[in-house]
Structures are given as C-alpha cells and as structure tokens.
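User: Hello, can you help with two protein structures?

Assistant: Certainly.
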Amino acid sequence: MTSTARETLKKYFGFDDFRPMQEEIIETFLKGSNVLALMPTGGGKSLCYQVPALATDGLCLVISPLIALMNDQVQNLRRQNITAFSIHTGMQRREVISILEMAAHSNCKFLYVSPERLETALFKEFLPALGIRFIAVDEAHCISQWGYDFRPPYLRIANLREALPGVPVIALTASATPVVQQDICDKLLVEGEPPFRIFRQSFNRPNLSYSVFKITSRIHKIVNVLRSVQGSAIVYCKTRKRSKEISEMLSAQGLEADFYHAGLPTEERAKKQERWVKNQVRVIVCTNAFGMGIDKPDVRAVIHADLPDCLENYYQEAGRAGRDGKKAFAVLLYDDAAIDELKSLPEIRYPDVTTIRNVYRNVVHYLQLPQGEAPGHSYDFNLKDYIKKFSQDIQTTLYGLKALEQDGWLSFNEQVFSPSTLRFHIYKEDLYEYEKKFADYEPLIKTLLRTYEGIYDYPVYISETFIARRLNFDVAVIKEQLHKLHADGVIIYQPQKDEPQVMLTRTRIKTDLLTINREEHEKRKNIFTERIQKMIDYATDVSECRSKTIGHYFGDTALNDCGVCDNCLQRKKPSLSNEHFTAITADLKAALTKPLTTEAVFSLLKEHRREHIWTVINHWVDEGSIFIEPDGKIFYKQG
C-alpha cells in the first residue's frame, strides 16, 4: 500500500489503519484495475473509492440511486473541506448546469450522479471537461435484472464506460448472489479489458446471533426481546400503519419507542432519527425507509416483526446490529399467515400487461403529458392525490410503475427526500445595490452569507427552519422571501422535495401501443419467486446454521457453523447435561456480580466450553434472567 493512501486515510478520515480487505481493494483500484467489492453494510465501502480519489489527481464520478445517501455523503465530504457535488432526479436544468460547470472548472473531487442523469444531453455535453479519473458504482446489484432491485437506468453505465476508455470502475454492493455478481461484471466490462477483480468480505459476523421465532403474539415477543437485550434497537415492519401501532404498544409497556416511515414530513423524520441516534429514544419502529446511511455502531438488537421478501434485504437490515463488534441480536418473527402472504406476492409484484398499460395511461394523464412528449424531464408525483383522482390502489400503482421502469418506459423514484439548496446568482456589487433597494431582504441575505460557507461558489444545503430561528422570523416568511430572491435572480433556490419523482425514459406514446417484454417479465417473476422461497426456507429451517445459510446464498461457502444462532445452540443442547447446565448457571451467577464482557466471562469460566456457556447465556436471556447492556456487557439479575 502506498504511503500516500495511508496519509490520505489519516488526513481526511482520522484512521491509522484500513479495515480488512480495504487495503487490497484500494491498492488494486489505484493500479487501474476494475474491481467488484462485496462488503457488508457498515463495512467501509465508500473509503474504497474516496481514498484513491483523494490520493490522486482528477475527479471521481460516483453513481448512486439513493438521493438521501448522496446528500449525506456530499455534506460529510464538505465538512472535511473536500469539494463534492450531487446531481439527481428532480433538479432544475439551470441548477444542473451550475453544478456541472463548477465540477468541470474547480478542484472538485467527487461528483455524485443518479443513473437517470448519465445519458442526458446536458451530462454528455459536459462529460469530456470533467476530468474523470475513477468511476464508482454504488448499489451495483441494481445493474442486474436478476438482482432484487434491478434499475434499468443503471444499464447506461456501460455506455458511459465506452465514452471514458481507460477509466477504471469500482462496483460496490453489500449483497449480491453469485449469478448477480457475474452479471454486474459482464454489464460493466468493456471489450478488451481484463476481467474484474472480485473481493468479497466474509459474511461471518461472530458477534451477531441470528434467531427466528414462529410466534402467536408479535408484540409479546418483541417486548420480551427488548427487555432481555438492553440498549438501542430497531424494529422493522412492512407497513407505515404497523410501525405506528407497534411503537405505541411498546410505549404503553414502558419502553421508549418512536416510529419512522417515508410518509412523515422531512423535518419530523430528521428529528426522530436524530433522537434515536443520540439515544434519547431507545427503540425506533420503522419501515425499510429507515437505516440507509445511518452510522450507529451500538445497535444491540434488530427485530423484524414481518418477513422481508428476500435474504438480500434481511441481511442488510439485520446487519445494522452490532457494528461495534460487541454482542448483538438479529431476531426474525413470523407466523403461517406471513408465509402465505409471501407466497402470494409474485402475482401482485408482477402484474399482467393490461394492468401495466392502465397504470401508464393514468400516470401520463395525471401528469398531463401529451403524446410525443420527449423523455428526460422529472415530474413531481403525489401518490395520495393520484390514487384519489384515479381510484387506483397503491399496490397496483407502485408495482405497475416498477414494471414500467424495469421495461425502460419511465423512471420512478419513490424516495426523493432532497433538502433545500441555495446558491447566490448575482455579482457582489449588484447584490449591494439590491440590498439598498430592498432593505427588508437585507437581514436574510446577510444571514445566508454569514451562515453558509461557499454559498457564492456552489449550491449549499440550507434549513429554512434554522434561518427562521436565527432571525426570529416565521418559517413561512423566510420561504416567501427566498422565493422572491429566486424570482429576482439573486439566488438559485431549490426547495426541499418530499414528492416522489417520475421521469419518462422513452417518448410518451399512445397507451394501446405500449408493449412489455413478456419473456423477460416472466423470467424476473420466476427469479423473484425463487428468492421468496429462499426467504421462507431460511425462516422455517430448524437445523442449518443461520450464518452459513446466509453466507452460502451470497456465495461465501467457506463459513463454519457460527455456534451462536438459534439452530446452532439447539443442536448443542443434547450434549449439555442437566448437571453441566446447572454448574455453568451457578458459575455465571458467581461471576456476574457486575456487568462483564463475554470475553471476561469466558476467561472466568475457562473450565467450560464456550459453546456451552453460550447455550446457557442465551437460555437465560430468553428467560429474562440475563441481560445484555447497551455496551454489550452482560449481567445476571439476582433473585
């Protein structure tokens, strides 16, 4: 590893050493090789392209479908005085032009771009001037139509690579099966290049205990787990309504809980997330809209109140527990109704052509798009208003849109939570004259200039609420003044977006002429059915090691039994006699007069086998006599 990379790591990120495999990945990428890196959630994927980019000249183009995550990355880099910008769905044309000009003519190191933007005429026009040194493809599984989250705009990356010969690419994902891994490499490889170097971190998480419970009372089991395992926790639910219901039931049981879902206003979501991250609320009950980009290492338990539809999602969400390396639990709950519901999903997720055409007709009418409307422009899409006007249920709408997206007719981004951005767009001497003419706006202008560094150079993220507090104005007044300054050409102001976005990726045609590739549609449906069956097999299997099942699914066949999941512990029970169980229990009581780490317990009870100690610990955790503290230490409730 070059000293430059180590110096870069220390200078910008404060770390003395790389995590396992990061060093080899970075070294390979710096030498110009194409890389596919499979690293678990929280495994440090972003450093694998950030360090090479900061250690060399030129710009790193980062392609990501997650707007909230892009914005977080840009803000984090800017806090370290690293120039970074993002371009994504929903931005106005002049804002995009402004960012591209700055990226091309400044010391910009990172440009985050949503895949929909790659083949626009505007992006192609600026591409030669950007000086791209590296390409990073985040959430790379999206490029494979055999993956669990296929997004056709990702296929445009292949054309981008053709336009940038010799520029190496690093593809990053936390979860991809062997078939998807190969498909990623095939889709991204340019003819004549050597094959991708594939790096895959082990899927072994020795500190994470996986358990599955078939339940009769969901809330009773959740409460039982949360009372046994102290510390920060996440409870995942499949619906917004259920997240609120479970949160209220937990609060009624004396547990500090709050709920989170995509339907809440942006500022409310941010407050809920911040309170949980700061441990002001212990449990966050949420849909899968929660968690991306949140770096909270001390989560002691992740509970799935409902069955996810695939192991990819389950592994990523469960993996948010125990990132600090201390003991943590991933608990999955299910009942027979949940199994039946999963089995019925393929027919719902992959609607027939008539249904898909009907969704297309309704959407283009809702957006008032005439036949012949050109692709490439984003439109706000208010789901509630649409459903009310067209009397079409939300499932039919969402899965119809997904089918249209997968066949390349449009792009649908359901989670566009983009904060407000602002940049001054007037010469400083003209601004002085404007302030004299419109004195009422001077306090706002001065506050913006004093509060946000670089606001004259590039769009910065702003908070209207924060500005209103500083000026002791009403938020509505601040927004009204910002819109006025924007209309007068003083600033370029882009208010925050909460609305989903729809963008045509083909010219709008007469609905009756719309066709779907039925063969590919059916194949995706069959693969989805297989993924569901793997999820059901995982939940209902009572013999195979949970970690091995997950690892094998993703191609990691080198795993041994973890020894700490429910199935491993169950298999060990017969070898542990009642007499031995009683002896270990007595020794644990004697040792746990104060909270201890598991390693300290093993040291004190070294005459016993570790797996036997684990069996006894987990038994008493289930019984509510042994507790896991927020820092991962365990203690015995005497009496």
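That covers the first. Now for the second protein you mentioned:
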Amino acid sequence: MSQVYIFSNTITFEKHPSQERSDDQMMMTQTYQHILALAFAVKEINKKTQILPNVTLGFHIYNSQFGEIWTYLASMELLSRQGRFIPNYSCDTENTLVAVIGGPNSNVCLHMATILCMYKMPQLIYGSAPQMNDKTQAVFFHQMFPNGTHHFMGILQLLLHFKWTWIGVLSQNEKNTEKFIEKILPVFSERGICFEFIQRFPKLTFIGDIERTVKEGFETFSIIMESTTNIVVVHGEIQDIHFLRMIPVAAEFEDIPMQTKAKVWVMTAQMEFTSFHFQRSWSMEILHGALSFTIHSKEVLGFQRFLQMRSPNSEKDDGFIEDFWKEAFNCSFRKSGIEERDGKICTGEEKLETLLASVFEMSMTGHSYSIYNAVHAVAHALHNMQSFQFKQRTLADREIQTFLNPQPQQLHHFLRSVSFNNSAGEKVSFNQNGEIIAGFDIINWIVFPNQSFQRVKVGKMDVVGLPENVFTIQEDAIIWPRRFNQILPHSLCNDNCQPGYRRVKKEGEPFCCFDCRPCPEGTISNQKNVGDCFQCPEDQYPKHTKDVCVPKKISFLSYEEPLGISLAVFALFFSFITTLVFGIFIKHQDTPIVKANNQNLTYTLLVSLLLSFLCTLLFIGRPEKVTCQLQQPAFGIIFSMAVSCVLAKTTIVVLAFMATKPGSSMRKWVGKRLALVIVISCSFIQVTICIVWLAIAPPFPDFDMQSVTEELVLECNEGSTIMFYCVLGYMGFLATVSFTVAFLARKLPDSFNEAKFITFSMLVFCSVWLSFVPTYLSTKGKYMVAVEIFSILSSSAGLLGCIFSPKCFIILLRPDLNKRGQLIRNIK
C-alpha cells in the first residue's frame, strides 16, 4: 500500500548518490483506512472456526510510497528472510508467503508484477488494474477492480443519459493511460461525444521539477477554466484528486471567478479523496456536485466499531498509527528530541469519528472494501485447497507439513474458482480473466461549509443484472454545483437544432459543433439535432414550421365549392341558350335563312354544341371509373362532330359559289350527301381514336400526390397521355382546316353566307385551344379540370355566338331580311 508520497531530489552523480538523495515526504491520512481494512479482515478470519481451522493468517505491510524504487524494494523483501534483506532466500516455516495484495495505483501493481510474476506469486490488485505488456504476467493477477470496459461504458452511459456531448478530459500522465486515450475515447466519439480538450495531470517526481510542474499546471488550469464545456471527465489514480483541489488556488492566482467557471467533474473509480497536510485549510467547493464511479461496496458489520477502538495507546504493534495520529489530529507525542507541533500534545484518546471526512472517513471506501474482499478471497482459496488435499490424501504429518508450506502457484486455481458471501451479504467471485464480478456505484459529492463532505449514492452500473437495469441513475437525488442552481447542466458545443432544422458541420471544428439550417422546401425534421431532413409520405405534406407532417386534404372540383357551382351554372346557362336557339330554328324552319346552307347540318351543329355544354358536367364532382372513361372521349367525339359540321358548312358554301360558274363540274358535289360524308368521316376518325384509347389504356380515377403540396388531388388519370393529345391534336387539325376554308370564303357575296361568321368562330375556337395547352400544363390540381371546362365552354360559346347570333338577330329582329327575294337581290 501507499500512505506516504515521496518527492526526491534529482541525482546528478556529482556526489555519491547517498549524499545527493534527499526525500521529502507527505502523508495521506485517508489511505490509513486501507491498512485497517486489511487488519480487520485478518482478525475477523482468525476468529472464525469455519475457515482455516488450526491455521492463523498473518500479514506484512510494505509502503511503496507511490514510487517505483520503493515498490521494487518491497517486492524483493517479500522474497527474503524476515528481518534480513537477502533476495531469493527465505527459510521461515511459520511465516509462509501465499499471496500479495497490491495497490492502490496501477504503477505499483505493474512494478510489483515484474518481480513477483517470476515466482508465480498470486497477486490481488485492489486499485486500478495495470496495462500488462506481457500476457503471461496477467495469469498471476486477480483483480479486485471490476472489468474496466464496464467502467468506461458506465461513464459513457452517464454522459449519454444527460446528453453531455461536449466534454473535456483530464488524464494522468502515465503510460498506463494510453489505453484510455487510444482505445476508450474513440468509442466515446463513435457514440457522439466530442472533446474540447484532452489534458494531462502535471507530474512531479523530483523536487527540482517543481517550477516546471507548476508552469504546466497553470497552463492546464487555464485551458480547463477557460473552456466552454461544463463537464470534465477525470481519469486518474487515488492520489490525483489533490490536483483538483489546487484549481481554486490557481484560479484565485489567475483572477478567474470560480463561481462562473465551475465544472461537473466525472471521476473514475480509481480515484478516492486524498489530500496533503498543507491542503487541509483549502476550500473543497470545487468537488461540490461532482459525480464519481466507485467499486460497489456495502458497509461491513463491525468495521466502524473496529475503527472507533483504534488508539496509539492500545495498538503498540501498529507501525503506522503514530504517524497517522500526528498528521490527522495535528499534534505530537512527547518524545525526546522531537518538538511539539503547535504546542498540541497527542494524548492517544482522540477519537477518529471526530475527524472531518476530508481527513479520515469512518465509512468503508471502495478501495478498503476491495482489500477486505481480497483477504477473504485468499482465506477461502486456502480453505478450499486444504479441503481438497484432505480428500485426496490420508492425513499424516507429511501432508500437514505440505499444507503448512504451500507453493504459491498451487493457489491460482482455487483463487479463480473461489466464490463466497462476505459478512456484508455480497457475493464475491472472479471471472475467467481473474476479474472480480462486481458493478460500480455512482456517487454524488456534497461539500459542507465546514469543508467536510459526504458521498451519496445516486446510481449504479450493475454488470450482472438484466440489460434494462445495467445502468440506473436517480436524477432527482443529484446535487449539482451551486453555479447551476439545481438545474441540470447542459454541455453542448452549441445549442440544439430544433425540429424543422438540420445540422450543418462547421469547417475545422469537431463534429459536435454545427450550424442549424432550416430544412429545404418540402422536407421536415421532427427531432432535435438531425443531420438530414426527410420527405413526408406522399399522402402528407410539411407544416409551415417544417417539424411535422400534416395529412393532405382530398381535393377535386366539387359542386359544393364556388368554382364548381359557377362552371356548372355557366354550362347549364349555355345549354339553355343553345336549346332556345334550337327552338327558334325549329319554329322558323321554313324561313330562307334557316333552310340556307343545309338545314340538317345546322340542327346537327346545335345538338353538338348542346352536348358540348352538357359534357362539362362530367368533369365536375368526385371522379369515378365511369365518369373518367366518359369525360375525354365524349368531349373529343362531340367537339369533333361540331367542328366537322362547321367544316361541312364552309365547304358547301365554297362549292356552291364555284358551282354557279358556267360549265362548272362542281355542281355534282353540292348536296346533302357531301355534308353527310364530311361529318360522318371526320367524326368516325375521332371515334376510332377514342375506341383505341379506351381499349389500350382507358382513363381511371387516381390520386395526384405531387402537384399540390397541401392537397391529395383526386383526378382522372388520362391513362395514356399520348392518346389524350391525339384527341386534342385531331380536333385541332379539323379546326385549322375549317378556319382556313372559312377564311378563304369570307368575302363571297351572299346575304346568308356563313363563311365570314364561321371564320370569326373558328378564330375564337383556335385561340381558346392554343392557349389551353400551356395553361393546362402550368396549372395544378383541380384547376387543371377547371381550365379544360372553361376551354370547352368558351370555345363552344364562341361557335354558338359567332355563327347563330347573326341569324337569330335576323329571325327575331329583322324578319324583313328573312325573305327569298332579299336573298336573290343580294346575289345579283
């Protein structure tokens, strides 16, 4: 164990090393409990008759003083005869060495193993386990410290639980920490943890290095205190906590206000509270609210009573108690040649329970609990080995003697397989790697105004429990540093990106540092700190805040909305007008103007226009299978018939005037049969196109999920866009031919010549449908249907108005012009 920290002068070899070497010692009173835990465990075992009957356990304690030299020396003395330092020579029969318990830091264990592993000596490590270079050495190690991977995963779970992704790391300056830096911290990064800084404890080995160490310390202090993170993970050893206590002193020297710079320290389980004598009056406020992992422990029955009974007056065989007593109670014993410390004399009647926890703790610490279990593990292993030997051999003096001098290598198997319950009711056993099967407690440090402290258990890391119970934390029980006013500290490189935004990495910064940009149009993010926004399902659309998807409304041109009602009213109105015109023509069917230019064509055209107006009603209302299959074909066939009638009328007018010329051969073409052929043939082509369309890819009801952001448009899918444009194209072809013929015949001298009016009507018709195509393609949703309805109504109304309004004017208002004589006079 280590109770004294030694600082040595640097040896320059200018003089004999014995003259140059001057060691300064500083005692850590807190580690005295480790000695008492060992003594208590041995005393408890020797009193029990169930374990090792007729065998008495003893112990030797060597102070490694946190140094390599003293550790090597102690290891060599273990292999020597007691009282005489002769390495590799021991002839004691009663004081048989069977195991070594080492700690509390990894360096002591590592240097101890260099000597003891050659002799296959069982070694039980109660501090942090060293990183072994030689795998064969690990065979002789039995770690009272649980598996380190569980330890670091517990710290990671703690950081992730509180969403602390922006942290600092303070690590010891030892080779043994390379595993933590090179292997553990990358795992933290993979889980989203970033590091603002990774600093090392300044290490002081020689007194001459004080100036350099102080300089390094101040640089480290400045980096820590000026950092923006609120969380610092401290990976250290038992003696390193005194470094944290120096931070307020350095902060005061550098004029850094601690109240605004306080951090939450997350400490590893290797660390315990230790301090030097000169730090007794220092503030401990920096530890208030810290969180630390400790080896799981329970209070051992009788241990506190054992501590209360300790006294220099009664424990004459305790070689450590007087030095501890003087340091703890700040007094001195009356001895010649030794000055009294501040005039205070140690009576030996002082009580340990009166000491502040910062000087000595009465409750068993994690390291002491490990030592206590280590002693019991050795005792149970020896007991099991004894029982095994008695079963295998007949009891005789030779066998007894053999057990009384057991070889160290004989104990390994029994240590690995040992399993027992200690007096605290905890099961103690090792895994196949020689690591104790145990978990960790999460401790919250609470500092009181009198500079004492209390460690409160607020969680645990149970490696043998159910997966859902491996990590537990009582968030409400945690006391945070006063700076945070009992509000959970946050530690992020920058604020969270709220839903509706995405993270964009900052160039040259750690991946935890990012800018928040709004999601692109049409995408959302419904969680914080997402890297990419995503599209909503097709039947939903992003809310304007871009943080949630809203179901789209089903939309179609309905009779219940103003636009649908207006179009339906116009369709019915024009249908009524067409019917009225048709009635007028029926009533005046014997008049010249009605009979002129093929009376049947006129009636057919009026019926076609009536059907054109009425077919628009198929486009209004919820699209169904039947209505979808009727819409476009009905519109195409009816309009083709109407335009065919117009073309036939125009053609007959042209042929009629050409036939009036003497000797013209056109007379045989003038007649009703020609008009009938033109109408039927032109309409038949459109009918054929529509039949093919319905046969190969008929229109059907469909949802358009893309055109309108907030609506699910229920529409009639054309089925085949090519066939749809074929229908329109053919209709446009007929209209173009009709317009051309009418334009050529517009100046023929005839009172009842329709060519001029047909020219205007076809000009209107072509203008409407030429503007329809770009308008239709640029419109979305139900308004595409409205555009098509409007085009049908306006083009039909253009034909009706331009062709029939002049005739109705004459029939109703100028009947004097509706006479055969007037017609003959105008022709002449």
